[in-house]
Design a protein that fits this description.
Layout lengths: L8 E11 L2 E15 L6 E8 L2 E8 L5 E9 L15
Antiparallel strand pairs: 1-2, 1-5, 2-3, 3-4
């Protein structure tokens, strides 16, 4: 369910990627910093920090390449967009 996730949740997304003729399943875990709710193109932006380097990735929720979304934890936030996390060092 796309509406089961809110900004501030920590989720793990498993998705399919094509590398040449092979199909591979990758996973990405991070905090949802942004959620855009169009009718057909709902997207969430995930952010994680690995070894001091921040990585952000946008996932369309209606994509057939997304296999699974697991909610790991939720944080209590009072904003609809957590862009201020980009400035934290």
């Amino acid at each position: 369910k796309p509406n089961a996730f809110e900004v501030g949740d920590i989720v793990r997304i498993s998705y399919k990627t094509n590398e040449g003729s092979k199909e591979k399943v990758n996973s990405f875990e991070g905090i949802i910093i942004c959620k855009k709710n169009s009718i057909l193109s709902q997207t969430i932006t995930l952010r994680r920090v690995v070894q001091g380097v921040a990585i952000e990735q946008v996932f369309p929720l209606n994509s057939p390449n997304i296999l699974e979304i697991k909610k790991r934890a939720n944080l209590k936030v009072r904003r609809s967009k957590l862009y201020y996390l980009r400035k934290v060092r």
